[in-house]
């Protein structure tokens, strides 16, 4: 028996991630903002690789660049790098327990922070504050609830992991 496809889920999740990225935060908390879009893209690349891959990540990144007013192509590059690594190790990641999967996502978010820092240093853009290096840890802690929420909505019920 085939479940009905919920076509609205992917655009809705990307929209919510973009809105969370635009949500105003106090200046002190700004560097700790989780990379919501990376968490959402990671979910879709892991769970539906036939539909969502490098092109999807790149286009979502371009949309984010336009939405947030960042360097055109910066987030597209960041999300494409992340999607490439996810696709490469998808077969293993899918069968990790949630705690290990969260650690892997944390590693990917840390890699994203490194890519961003190298890109900013190369282009002469001011680097993020030191506190921004804690954001991947927050993203790692948020991975299980984000995954469970998206998976539950996508499948119309809660699955055990």
From TrEMBL:
The keyword Cell membrane applies. It is found in: Cell inner membrane; Cell membrane. InterPro entries: Cell_shape_determining_MreD, MreD_proteobac. The keyword Secreted does not apply. Keywords: Cell inner membrane, Cell membrane, Cell shape, Membrane, Transmembrane, Transmembrane helix. It comes from the Bacteria. The chain crosses the membrane at residues 53-72, 93-111, 131-150. Its main location: membrane. It is a multi-pass membrane protein. Belongs to the MreD family. Involved in formation of the rod shape of the cell. May also contribute to regulation of formation of penicillin-binding proteins. This is Rod shape-determining protein MreD. It comes from Novilysobacter selenitireducens. The gene is mreD.
């Amino acid at each position: 028996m085939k479940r009905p496809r919920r076509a609205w889920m992917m655009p809705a999740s990307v929209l919510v991630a973009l809105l969370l990225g635009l949500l105003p935060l106090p200046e002190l908390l700004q560097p700790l903002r989780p990379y919501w879009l990376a968490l959402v893209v990671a979910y879709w690349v892991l769970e539906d690789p036939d539909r969502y891959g490098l092109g999807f990540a790149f286009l979502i990144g371009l949309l984010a660049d336009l939405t947030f007013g960042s360097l055109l192509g910066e987030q597209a590059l960041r999300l494409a790098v992340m999607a490439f690594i996810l696709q490469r190790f998808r077969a293993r990641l899918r069968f990790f327990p949630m705690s290990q999967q969260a650690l892997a996502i944390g590693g990917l978010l840390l890699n994203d922070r490194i890519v961003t820092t190298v890109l900013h240093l190369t282009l002469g853009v001011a680097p993020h504050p030191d506190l921004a290096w804690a954001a991947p840890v927050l993203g790692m802690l948020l991975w299980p609830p984000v995954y469970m929420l998206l998976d539950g909505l996508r499948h119309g019920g809660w699955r055990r992991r």
